[in-house]
């Protein structure tokens, strides 16, 4: 895999956005919970203070009620006391009111210090009651432990003077137990929340209702004592609370603190109006919230959890979607959907990577295609043709694998990066062989030939596209009919390609400007020693007077298709010449013109020939079409039928360059040729070798036997003429008689006399 490319570059931001959204959610969640806790604490603290205030108010009301009962006792004792009150009368009144309220005792102390109890006894109060109490002039309520000399319990005392007109007869003292205050309904909520303590402004515990049983065993004088010893609250906090509690101007408040074990405590207090010096304290831990808090927090955590889960799910979905999208993009960018292999993009990156990593390995780029793939496509259908492309990639994978790669670029074009090993050609041969075997398996009987251009990569070369182009340049030099189907790139080749490019750029104008000239080379009847006809050969006369030979431009035109136009132009020139000769009444000889393979593949070819011959009214047999033998190596049946059609047009047909390739005498039997042109290479061999001479004689005899005329090309000497005559060859063409000459010169030199 080429490094770094094709990876999911956009997955990173998605993951980051997902992670950020998750963190934000988490922070919102934590903040939300913290906020809930804070406001809950505040709410509950306020609630407790409100509860304390309400309880204080209820307590005040209760005390006012009790006071009015005691007032009623004093009033009745005063009313009745106008005369002298009997003891029994006093006891009756005391008893009557004692049952109305929950008094511990109701007493009546007369001016003479006699004290009457509700349980119907009396005594002298001097040694029981403290002195200042005798002085009361108006209603007084005390919370004190200093009333009875022999008791130190705190008691709630209601003192009301008993008046007889302006004169005081004594006073009523009603007692209530201090401990009962916190047991009232008003404090039920507070009792459930924690410890409830009644203190004076100095923090002295007057009464307490403790939820913690452990505290029952020990006695604490002040709440500060209790806070320090039992709850382990540090001194600083204790003094903060003591300052608040002792502050007369502060009726309520809350102090929050943490003990040494990390438990948080809250101390809320309130002062009932009736006792400015009295403090009702509620002591509770943070556990008081937990019930409410837990429900709210669980709800919040759950909704935050759902939120975070949604973010995670969303991120995962986006991530998955994008990774499959990116996979698809990578696939589209680097894979070939027809072969299932890699594509050119991948090839370029792979090659660059290999060259960088293994500079010591001699790498080559091969650029190949399937010869006549168009025919395979048409003959076997595109599905099988596609299968063939797939086979090529699959087999290439088997043969070229270590640091090597073969990809399909486009259509039937392939690129291969291969190590230039000694056995490379052998490997390629194996590969072609395997492709052929597999092609047969899928029913393609047509032999698979891979035309290949090769480029040896030089050191420090980096332009992969240029390397591929160079290999392709070499491939393009192959027309497909060569024995060898591999061509290597060379600078010479590049030069030729440049030349070819120039030719291509100029050809159209050249045809228009009539720069292509018809030269004629005479053909000689050596038996009768007279002209038999001529072959039209093209020459390109440039404007500057330079002449270019067909070997320089015909192969270029054969590749780009321009040869078709040129051949028809030459045919027309020949027709024109013959017509002119006939019209002049001068002798006219048959002219042969060379015809390229491309023409034969043109479906309108026969029509064109027919039209041209009839336009120039060419008599039968005056035009001979020369077709090189290589044309007949492929599509044999199709070629036979085309030649048969041509025969009907009444042209002569000759097989050109016989003996230059894999000639087969069979062809003479199957194809309707009139003439067999023996190539000069084959002929020149016959001169030196006896066996070749013998073969030539056989060919001549056999052709004659089939009614085919034989003409030998490239005859340059008198000896050659003599030898051919002896072998029975009647017609020759060559420099011995004449080089190709301009058509006008040919007419002038050879067609001057009336035949
Ligand atoms: P070809 O059709 O076999 O033409 C015969 C070639 O042999 C000609 O080369 C001719 O000049 C050459 N030749 C003839 N006698 C001798 C000889 O005694 N010694 C030597 N050394 N050569 C001899 P040329 O004109 O250069 O043409 C080369 C080839 O180019 C032709 O071979 C033909 O295949 C092709 N060609 C020429 N004109 C045309 C054309 O108009 N259309 C097509 N399609 N091909 C053409
Ligand atoms: Mg020829
Ligand atoms: Mg020839």
Task: Please count the beta strands (DSSP E, at least 2 residues each).
Answer: 26
Which strands sit side by side, in order, in the main sheet? 17-18-20-21-22-23-24-25
Helix content: 40-55%
CATH fold type of the domain at 510-750: TIM Barrel
The assigned CATH architecture of the domain at 510-750 is Alpha-Beta Barrel
Largest sheet: 8 strands, mixed, barrel
Instruction: Note poorly predicted spans.
Output: 3-7
Describe, in plain words, how this protein is organized in 3D.
Among the domains are: 181-288, Beta-Lactamase, CATH 3.30.450; 335-489, Alpha-Beta Plaits (2-Layer Sandwich), CATH 3.30.70; 510-750, Alpha-Beta Barrel (TIM Barrel), CATH 3.20.20. The model is unreliable at 3-7 (pLDDT under 50). The protein contains 22 helices and 26 strands. A hairpin with a 7-residue loop joins β10 and β11 (278-285). The relative contact order is 0.06. By secondary structure, it is an alpha+beta fold. The chain starts with 10 loop residues before the first helix and ends in a 5-residue tail after the last helix. The protein is rod-shaped. One magnesium ion (MG) binds next to loops. Residues 656-657, 677, 679, 713 line the site of one magnesium ion (MG).
């Amino acid at each position: 895999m080429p490094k770094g490319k094709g990876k999911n570059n956009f997955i990173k931001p998605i993951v980051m956005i997902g992670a950020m959204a998750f963190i934000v959610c988490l922070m919102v969640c934590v903040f939300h919970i913290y906020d809930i806790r804070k406001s809950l604490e505040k709410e509950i603290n306020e609630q407790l203070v409100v509860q304390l205030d309400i309880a204080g108010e209820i307590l005040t009301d209760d005390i006012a009620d009790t006071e009015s009962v005691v007032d009623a006792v004093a009033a009745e004792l005063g009313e009745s006391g106008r005369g002298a009150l009997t003891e029994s009368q006093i006891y009756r009144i005391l008893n009557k009111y004692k049952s109305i309220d929950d008094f511990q005792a109701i007493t009546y102390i007369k001016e003479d210090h006699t004290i009457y109890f509700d349980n119907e006894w009396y005594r002298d109060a001097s040694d029981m009651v403290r002195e200042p109490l005798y002085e009361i002039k108006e209603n007084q309520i005390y919370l004190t432990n200093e009333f009875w000399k022999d008791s130190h319990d705190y008691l709630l005392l209601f003192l009301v003077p008993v008046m007889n007109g302006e004169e005081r007869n004594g006073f009523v003292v009603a007692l209530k137990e201090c401990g009962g205050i916190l047991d009232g309904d008003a404090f039920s909520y507070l009792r459930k929340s924690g410890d409830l303590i009644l203190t004076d402004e100095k923090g002295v515990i007057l009464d307490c209702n403790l939820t913690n049983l452990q505290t029952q065993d020990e006695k604490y004088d002040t709440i500060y004592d209790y806070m320090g010893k039992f709850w382990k609250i540090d001194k600083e906090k204790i003094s903060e609370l003591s300052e608040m509690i002792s502050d007369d101007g502060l009726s309520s408040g809350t102090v929050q603190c943490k003990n040494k074990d990390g438990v948080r405590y809250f101390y809320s207090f309130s002062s009932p109006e009736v006792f400015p010096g009295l403090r009702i304290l509620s002591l509770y831990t943070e556990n008081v919230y937990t019930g409410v808090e837990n429900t709210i927090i669980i709800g919040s955590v759950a909704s935050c959890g759902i939120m975070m889960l949604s973010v995670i799910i969303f991120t995962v979905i986006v991530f998955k979607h994008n990774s499959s999208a990116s996979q698809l993009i990578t696939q589209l960018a680097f894979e070939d959907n027809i072969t299932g292999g890699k594509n050119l993009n991948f090839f370029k990156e792979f090659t660059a990577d290999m060259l960088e990593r293994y500079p010591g390995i001699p790498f080559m780029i091969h650029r190949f295609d399937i010869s006549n793939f168009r025919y395979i496509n048409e003959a076997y259908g595109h599905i099988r043709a596609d299968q063939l492309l797939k086979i090529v990639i699959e087999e290439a994978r088997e043969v070229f694998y270590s640091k090597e790669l073969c990809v399909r670029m486009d259509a039937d074009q392939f690129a291969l990066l291969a190590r230039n090993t000694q056995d490379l050609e052998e490997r390629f041969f194996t590969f072609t062989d395997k492709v052929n075997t597999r092609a047969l398996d899928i029913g393609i009987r047509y032999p698979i030939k891979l035309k290949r251009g090769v480029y040896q990569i030089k050191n420090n070369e980096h332009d992969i596209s240029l390397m591929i182009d160079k290999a392709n340049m070499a491939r393009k030099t192959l027309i497909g009919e060569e024995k060898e189907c591999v061509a290597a790139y060379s600078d010479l080749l590049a030069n030729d390609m440049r030349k070819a490019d120039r030719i291509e750029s100029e050809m159209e104008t050249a045809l228009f400007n009539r720069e292509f000239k018809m030269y004629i080379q005479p053909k000689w009847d050596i038996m009768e020693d007279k002209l038999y006809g001529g072959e039209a050969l093209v020459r390109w006369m440039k404007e500057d007077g330079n002449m270019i030979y067909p070997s320089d431009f015909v192969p270029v035109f054969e590749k780009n298709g321009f040869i078709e136009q040129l051949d028809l132009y030459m045919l027309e020139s020949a027709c024109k010449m013959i017509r002119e000769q006939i019209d002049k009444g001068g002798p006219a000889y048959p002219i042969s013109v060379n015809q390229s393979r491309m023409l034969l593949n043109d479906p309108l070819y026969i029509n064109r020939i027919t039209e041209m011959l009839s336009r120039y009214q060419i008599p039968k047999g005056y035009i001979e079409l020369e077709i090189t033998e290589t044309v007949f190596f492929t599509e044999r049946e199709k070629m036979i039928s085309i030649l048969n059609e041509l025969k009907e047009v009444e042209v002569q047909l000759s097989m050109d360059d016989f003996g230059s390739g894999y000639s087969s005498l069979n062809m003479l039997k199957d194809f309707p040729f009139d003439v067999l042109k023996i190539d000069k290479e084959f002929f020149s061999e016959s001169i030196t070798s006896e066996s070749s001479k013998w073969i030539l004689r056989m060919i001549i005899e056999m052709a004659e036997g089939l009614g085919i005329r034989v003409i030998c090309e490239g005859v340059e000497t008198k000896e050659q003429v003599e030898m051919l005559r002896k072998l029975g060859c009647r017609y020759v063409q060559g420099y011995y008689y004449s080089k190709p000459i301009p058509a006008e010169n040919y007419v002038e030199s050879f067609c001057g006399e009336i035949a």
